[in-house]
Amino acid sequence: MKKILEGKTKDIYEIDGHHLLMKFKDDVTGEDGVFNPGADQVGLKMEGISQLNLRLSKHFFEDLNEMGVCTHYCDADIEDLSMKVRKANLFGHGIEVICRFHACGSFIKRYGAYIEEGSKLPAYVEFTLKDDERNDPLITKDALIVLEILNKEDYEAIETLSRQISIYIKNECAKHNLELYDIKLEFARDIETNNLMLIDEISSGSMRVYQNGHVLDPFSLSKIILQD
Amino acid sequence: MKKILEGKTKDIYEIDGHHLLMKFKDDVTGEDGVFNPGADQVGLKMEGISQLNLRLSKHFFEDLNEMGVCTHYCDADIEDLSMKVRKANLFGHGIEVICRFHACGSFIKRYGAYIEEGSKLPAYVEFTLKDDERNDPLITKDALIVLEILNKEDYEAIETLSRQISIYIKNECAKHNLELYDIKLEFARDIETNNLMLIDEISSGSMRVYQNGHVLDPFSLSKIILQD
Predict the structure, then answer these.
(1) Among A89, B31, B87, B193, which lies 20 to 30 A Cα-Cα from A208?
(2) Does the beta carbon of A121 lie under 8 angstroms from any beta carbon of chain B?
(3) Is B124 in contact with A111 (Cβ distance < 8 A)?
(4) H or E element at residue A12
(5) Do residues A76 and A147 share a domain?
(6) Does the CB of A126 have a partner CB in chain B at under 8 Å?
(7) What is the span of the domain harbouring residue B70?
(8) What is the pLDDT along chain A (228 residues), one digit of tens a residue?
(9) A226 in a structural domain
(10) A80: phi then psi, degrees, rounded to nearest 5
């Protein structure tokens, strides 16, 4: 198999014209050695986190596929630390959608004059561009349309789908008395069917989850959700 | 009169319960001694620019008032470098609206992966918060509503009004073969009537104007527009 991308937390291989293999790594995003799911750099290595992230992604993606949500997930090989997925055409060079149930991270950095850290938000959705060089800038609906990254219908479909998926994850967390603060999702179009689908991973690296008012570390989060 | 605010480019005095006096200064925004209407710091002094900015604001505001656009402008005293305006209640701690006809400044900093400097934009409107500490962050319609800075109706009224005013200014520039690239406007509610109105100034410090493909310095811009 040909390696087509060496990512920050995953390497990507081509299986065939319609499928990719994602190999999970033990690298996680963060700054100055501190884990931060909102960071766009790899900050540290956490031994064993690749397997937990893969198991968590498998858990969520299988549920979502069963619920009829279109995702890129085909299957996972836990021993091999790999996930087989459908090949996708990105919107532009890639977009990220953040759904926020509580104010934290970049939302507080931007709007801290108006809201306190941890305050509730009503499944508020915002879009950022995947662009390391420009620090993944926030982008408005109008700018996405003007730059022809999304049209109005795509924007609204992605916004609705993000909210649905995020509420499902929030409810999964709530079953274990955990509180989802925010989650980052990625979408693209299936290269074969052109369907809008959820891509990337859904794991400790994509979300902030709190237990009794404190953010959970990636290991504890994965272990609690996977315990059943 | 009581000075109630020492601003970056203007000082503000209270005339009475419903009126303020804005005293224009020769300071302009910029970075490292270079003029930049998009900057949020005072970068340099330009002798005489206060009078030109006041004359330009007077010119635009008088036109707008005549056109029936609600503004805070009452009158101007050119010798005194001052403008009498109606007192306003800000939205939150103040919002700025940018209308863009060409891509430049912070738009390129954020979205330079998708568009070349100078490319045309269709009167694209975006909002930022006035917050020096946080570098005047971009804010989406949804975030303005979630943070209760604007409601949906306010947002849409301000968006429409910004586009109308910006197109008027663009046409004023075009009369002199000048091209408006972008403009920054501020809005608030009249403290007495609660009317939505255009506030602050409309001058070389609020816009980027090009002549034959080159950005005009504040002096040339003011002198060309005021020549008739």
Answers:
(1) A89
(2) yes
(3) no
(4) strand A10-16
(5) no
(6) yes
(7) 2-88
(8) 899 999 888 999 999 999 999 999 988 888 777 888 777 777 788 889 999 999 999 999 999 999 999 999 999 999 999 999 999 999 999 999 999 999 999 999 999 999 999 999 999 999 999 999 999 999 999 999 999 999 999 999 999 999 999 999 999 999 999 999 999 999 999 999 999 999 999 999 899 999 999 999 999 999 999 986
(9) no
(10) -80, -5
Q: How distant is the Cα of A147 from the closest Cα of chain B, in angstroms? A: 7
Residue A129 tokens, joined? 């561009």
Are B131 and A121 in contact (CB < 8 Å)? Answer: no
Contact yes or no for B141 and A146 at CB 8 A: no
ipTM value, please give it: 0.92
Task: Look at chain B and report how many structural domains it folds into.
Answer: 2
**What CATH number does residue A195 fall under?**
3.30.470.20
Looking at residue A228, its pLDDT comes to: 64
Residue of A nearest to B159 (CA): A142
Contacts of B103 in chain A (CB under 8 A): none
Residues B31 and B59 in one domain: yes
Residues of B numbered 99-118 whose beta carbons fall under 8 angstroms of chain A's beta carbons: which are they? 107, 109-115
A149:B115 CB<8 A: no
Mention every residue, 6+ apart, whose C-beta is less than 8 A from residue B150: B91, B95, B144, B158
pLDDT band, residue B7 (cuts 50/70/90): confident
Residue of A nearest to B101 (CA): A146
| Same-domain status, A103 and A164 | yes
Which of the listed residues A88, A112, A147 is the one where a domain comes to its end? Answer: A88
Residues B100 and B48 in one domain: no
pLDDT, tens only, B91-141: 999 999 999 999 999 999 999 999 999 999 999 999 999 999 999 999 999
Nearest CB among A109, A133, A140 relative to B140 is that of A140
* Chain A residues inside the 8 Å CB shell of B147: 111, 114-115
Q: Check if B34 contacts A (Cβ < 8 Å).
A: no
CATH number at residue A82: 3.30.200.20
Helix (H) or strand (E) holding A107: helix A106-111
Residue A35 falls inside a structural domain = yes
